[in-house]
């Protein structure tokens, strides 16, 4: 990604690299780190058809608005065993505030499709997004209970410099400190901090909520 131009490798180019890694180094499992591998459905269909000729397994990231049941079935047939989804929150109010562009009910539907087809789902949740309150936390917990994910990753929101929320925080129900020495994606429980607070939660409360949700829903992943 450079500026506003998205450049993607061709399906054939990806196929050639996978073939090289498999033949030369005997790799049989892969992780594709595209933020959304299925952003171009026609491209993904071509990738799946090419990968189907290999006996490999792989994981990738998707959004619920970039796949349908037919696409997921094609991915499973080509070796996809797990997808990661940036769900962020189970509250539609929160998703609308951050302009996620996805409906909660769509996320639930796609998760169910994946489970029916035989693809594991890891959900990524963010606690402390603008507007977070007790009702939105309850909605997220209800969502996670209904979605029955295979794995979960729960993080605390970090407003990155240059982002809209960072530049115009007065428009959002959020307060934060520029203390990025404690801002990391993952860390040992009890050692990380929340840089943000909302009108409903203090920073310490957000950390506690994050820990409680992860403890309640985290499941031990076992590879197939």
Topology:
Layout: H1 11-25, E1 29-31, H2 41-51, E2 57-62, H3 69-77, E3 80-88, H4 92-97, H5 104-117, E4 120-127, H6 134-147, E5 151-156, H7 164-167, E6 175-176, E7 196-197, H8 203-217
Parallel strand pairs: 1-2, 2-3, 3-4, 4-5
Antiparallel strand pairs: 6-7
Helix pairs in contact: 1-2, 2-3, 3-5
Structure commentary:
The chain has 224 residues and is α/β, with parallel strands linked by helices. The protein has a single domain, classed as Alpha-Beta Horseshoe (pyruvate-formate lyase- activating enzyme), CATH 3.80.30. Helix content is 39%, strand content 16%. It has helices spanning 11-25, 41-51, 69-77, 92-97, 104-117, 134-147, 164-167, 203-217, and strands at 29-31, 57-62, 80-88, 120-127, 151-156, 175-176, 196-197. Strand 1, helix 2 and strand 2 form a beta-alpha-beta unit. It is elongated. The two termini are 33 Å apart.
